[in-house]
């Protein structure tokens, strides 16, 4: 028979390990007791998610990662989803972004039912990433917060002020843009996006914030720089259609009137041409679908 004797140092080390295990075990038990209700709710929620997942088809994924690796290039998200839908050949399917399941709806009739529900006023948790900069606004606020803000904004958009008063600012800022475009006549193609963005920023500043917009004069404008900076890398799914269902965001009407004024002023003064072909147009998802190659146009003055 062999006997093993513990030295003083090894005995103390083992005792410390036992005490550490006991301490960690006690903390774990107390944590479970403290948050047992939340844990039970999460387990029930996960069971419902897995039950729903079993009834939906979806592309194969990688353990722990799911399908997240297929969306590494966020600019091609729309095309990736379209290809998945085509390969699976179903109108509604699931994808996994790590432990989070997302249901993709492609049938407009299904989308109409979903967006027609009052629950559509609630925002996805992905909007929480905006909270350090934007808190409980029309963009990321859901439920009661959204409805309260909407009651204040809708009369402004749908009332007479937009047509009788704001249209003056639309025309004023657009005319400034038209004058600046005169330098581009006969110089070949240029990206009209860089001319329109400062114009729209000045319009928003004057009509929404009530302060003069000076982006077209080359002055610092936090709206222009902030939009370009903070929209980079933004998840393309962190967006809900402005006119979707009961939300009926007034921004769609505001934006449409702004677009009409800008286009009307441009075609009134210039003949627009472009070498960009629809067949070779490359687009990507950047909040909305946009051209990767920009919007090159050339101008000819209309006498």
Automatic annotation (TrEMBL):
Q: How does it sit in the membrane?
A: Peripheral membrane protein
Q: Does the keyword Membrane apply?
A: yes
**Record's GO cellular component terms:** endoplasmic reticulum membrane
| GO terms, molecular function | heme binding; iron ion binding; monooxygenase activity; oxidoreductase activity, acting on paired donors, with incorporation or reduction of molecular oxygen
Can the keyword Cell cycle be found in this entry's annotation?
Answer: no
Residue stretches in coiled coil: none
Q: Which cofactor does it need?
A: heme
Mark the transmembrane ranges: 12-33
Give the Pfam families listed for this entry. p450
* Localization terms from the record: Endoplasmic reticulum membrane; Microsome membrane
| Function as written in the Swiss-Prot or TrEMBL entry | May be involved in the metabolism of insect hormones and in the breakdown of synthetic insecticides.
Name of protein? Cytochrome P450 4g15-like
Q: Which organism is it from?
A: Fopius arisanus
The UniProt gene name for this protein comes to LOC105264384
């Amino acid at each position: 028979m062999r006997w093993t004797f513990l030295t003083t140092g090894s005995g103390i080390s083992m005792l410390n390990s036992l005490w550490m295990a006991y301490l960690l075990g006690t903390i774990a038990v107390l944590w479970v007791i403290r948050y047992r209700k939340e844990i039970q709710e999460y387990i029930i929620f996960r069971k419902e998610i897995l039950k729903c997942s079993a009834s939906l088809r979806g592309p194969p994924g990688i353990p722990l990662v799911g399908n997240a690796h297929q969306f590494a290039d966020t600019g091609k998200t729309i095309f990736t989803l379209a290809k998945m839908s085509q390969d699976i050949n179903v109108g509604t399917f699931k994808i996994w972004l790590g432990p989070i399941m997302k249901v993709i709806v492609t049938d407009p009739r299904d989308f109409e039912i979903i967006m027609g529900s009052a629950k559509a006023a609630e925002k996805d948790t992905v909007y929480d990433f905006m909270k350090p900069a934007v808190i409980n606004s029309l963009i990321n606020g859901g439920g009661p917060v959204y409805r309260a803000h909407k009651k204040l904004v809708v009369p402004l958009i749908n009332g007479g002020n937009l047509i009788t008063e704001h249209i003056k600012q639309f025309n004023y800022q657009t005319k400034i843009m038209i004058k600046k475009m005169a330098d581009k006549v006969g110089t070949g193609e240029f990206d009209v996006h860089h001319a329109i963005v400062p114009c729209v920023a000045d319009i928003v500043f004057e009509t929404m914030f009530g302060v003069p917009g000076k982006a077209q004069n080359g002055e610092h404008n936090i709206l222009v720089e902030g939009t370009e900076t903070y929209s980079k890398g933004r998840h393309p799914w962190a967006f809900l259609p402005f006119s979707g269902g009961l939300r009926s965001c007034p921004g769609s009407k505001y934006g449409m009137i702004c677009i009409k004024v800008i286009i009307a002023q441009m075609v009134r003064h210039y003949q627009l041409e472009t070498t960009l072909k629809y067949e070779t147009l490359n687009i990507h998802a950047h909040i909305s679908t946009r051209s990767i190659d920009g919007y090159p146009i050339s101008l000819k003055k209309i006498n």
